[in-house]
Amino acid sequence: MAEGQGRNRRFRAPEMEGTMARWFARQRGSPRQIIRCKEEAARFTHQLPAGAKVLEVAPGPGYLAIEIARLGRFEVTGLDISHTMVEIATENAQRAGVSVDFRRGDATMMPFTSESFDLVVCQAAFKNFRRPLNALNEMHRVLHRGRGAVIQDLSRDASDAEIDQEVQGMGLRWLSAWFTRVTLGTMLRRRAYSPTGFKRLVARSDFHACDIHKTGISLEAQLTKSRE
Asked: Is residue 160 situated within a structural domain?
């Protein structure tokens, strides 16, 4: 299948339930990565008014959503397909003393009314969606007019050297760092979109267009719902 066509993909990610989910949550929760979540929470929301509603799609252990909630100005929701991840994220939010509505659901059939959110964020998960075009259209549907979505993910164009540098910056122990490096460089990179491939997919969606920036191993797509 050609990259970015948006059809059902033949591959799928390992099920993020049970032991696998809890291992993944620990890898994402290193002090350096939490610092990055704090920085991105502030960056993503700096133009939003107080009281805005934010949705994170596939939040996993919920670290980004929790940091957005810590800002104290927004109503934050997380939607994840994994029962275990919803449990972990809810536990993490309770320990952090913040309110985030983590719930289980499918990114391609979101349990929200149209125009419910002022910002939709999706990090490190989009490449695993089996119906990516449907997911984009659902993000578009639940956004208020004139509001936007941010999708961050591994880029297919990421080099081995960039992956090595990224993993070094995660602050992981050597075995976890080795496993993460291998996973990023093999299984995950071949699923990922290049900037060009992602733009082709978005062109077929209700968003029609996006701005893409590549930094290190990641691409970041900014999408806006028309006011019309």
From this structure: no
Which pTM value belongs to this model?
A: 0.85
CATH number at residue 121: 3.40.50.150
Is position 7 within any domain? Answer: no
Q: What is the CA radius of gyration of the chain?
A: 17
Mean pLDDT of 203-210: 98
Strand order in the sheet with 218-224: 101-104, 75-80, 53-57, 117-123, 143-154, 218-224, 211-215
Dihedral sign for Cα 114, 211, 155, 194, please. Answer: positive
Label residues 158-170 b or e (16+ Cβ within 10 Å = b): beeebbeebbeeb
Give the single-character DSSP code of 172. Answer: -
Q: Is-contact 196 156, C-beta < 8 A?
A: no
